Amino acid sequence: MSEEPLVYLIYGSPGSERRSILFDLIEGGVSKEDKVLYFQPTGEAPSPFDDRIDSLENVSTVPWQLDRCTVKHGRISAAPDKIFFLAPGTADPADVAEALQGWISHNRCALARIITVIDCSFLKSCEKARGWYDACIHFSDIVLLSRREGVENRWLRDFELQHRKKCYPCHLELTKKGKAANPVAVLEPEARRISLYFDQLIPIEEDSLDEEERPEDTRPDRYIERNEAGQRIQGIPDISRFLQLGSDRPGADKK
Length: 255
Fold this sequence. Notes:
Shape: globular
CATH class: Alpha Beta
């Protein structure tokens, strides 16, 4: 067991089967002896899996919310071995990453993995939301392709091809009925993300280097970096503007 609690973050839009996948990951991928702390975002539509997660004997649930790139949460009474943050379904992924980084540093935890759950049916019907998912993938170690009803194999192949062309090191996996094929492998604390934002890097002498000559690992993360006015330099689409397109799907707001 790690001396520091291991932290997992799950990105995903409402209705993407985030909570059914989370339940499966805890039930099938975490030892029953490990104490789990689940940070449940406030303001989400209820799901049958809320009660199922709460019913797990080794899980304690704490409500949390994103407040100006910081984590605000209720009282913690457990001493967990593993911590799962479910990101708010309509939040800016960069804001969530910045909040989590601050929380991890303050609480002396270790980031294990960041997981993105992609609602393939929704994304296929609304390509304008791709920029939001791209930001999630940028921070992620593993991407789970869920909700594939009505999605042709050609679309999935094209998605995987674009993933390879961008040289993302994170893994892509298909889910089935709201479950990952191998929960233990999904939770393996191996960094596979392209972003270096959460990494502790050894500083180098760079005074003599021009901006374009600076190594990638010394530059601010492109989604985190802000301009002098405090605004993000790399904008991310507001996914809540597009979610109405998929709101009539069966179970779209319950997982």
